[in-house]
Amino acid sequence: MGYSPPNAVLTWMFLLLLLETWAGRSRAQESKVLGGQQCEAHSQPWQTALFQGEQLLCGGVLVDASWVLTAAHCKKPKYTVRLGDHSLQNKEESEQEIPVAQSIPHPCYNSSNDNNHNHDLMLLRLRGQASLGSKVKPINLADHCPQVDQKCTISGWGTVVSPQENFPDTLNCAEVKIFPQKKCEDAYPGKVTDGMVCAGESNGADSCQGDSGGPLVCGGVLQGITSWGSDPCGRPERPGVYINICRYLDWIKKTMGRSSRS
């Protein structure tokens, strides 16, 4: 007959197992968007990642089976869009990688001026259509501008510390609020236009390097694209700055070949 450990030993073994599980979960949640935490897997099915080979360049947002919105400053001669991802290192069943057929920055964006963030918006036409489902799904564009103090979600694989850099493996999310435009302009004198919107939180929740091109989602619709902010990131008085989608609806719809809704 085999030896059966006494009940006390079994209890200790069970407690140690629980402790290890808890510790592993805690470690997994240490990596986060500044002031945020690991997203629930596939809770942001519109989130995409732009890759040049194996290098993560920027985030992006699926707005149609064939189209992704991102920041114009993310433009490269050749790259791919990854969809349906949560962990960048682990290959997932929902993961799709599609080459970019055409990059279309906003016609007023000036790529030669590094300090000019005006019209920092770009549409990417994918070479093939994304296979849509619960883990890969376009998001609707906002049909009105965001409200002050409205709660929104930002997400990305960008660095979770600043000014040093530490890029997480899994998608991270943070909750932020829309700032009054005057407060946004005061934080960055002479740099903020009507085509931009600021969002942040008193705990320093913020997007950072690597999050560019990712979504600002408010009330389930896309209100902004991550563009720029303070350096280092996460300063409560200097919020993240996003391209204000409501100001670009006509250009987006016209470029995608859609007629504007009444």
Short description:
With 262 residues, the chain is α+β, with helices and mostly antiparallel strands. The protein has helices at residues 7-28, 181-187, 249-255; strands at residues 37-38, 47-52, 55-64, 67-70, 80-83, 96-105, 122-126, 151-156, 172-178, 196-200, 215-218, 221-228, 240-244.
In words, what does this structure look like?
With 262 residues, the chain is of the alpha+beta class. Helices cover 14% and strands 29% of the residues. The chain has helices at 7-28, 181-187, 249-255, and strands spanning 37-38, 47-52, 55-64, 67-70, 80-83, 96-105, 122-126, 151-156, 172-178, 196-200, 215-218, 221-228, 240-244. The strands form two sheets. The protein has a six-stranded antiparallel β-barrel. Strand 3 (55-64) and strand 4 (67-70) form a beta hairpin. The longest helix is centred in the first third of the chain and has 22 residues, at 7-28. It is globular and about 45 Å long. 39% of the residues are buried.
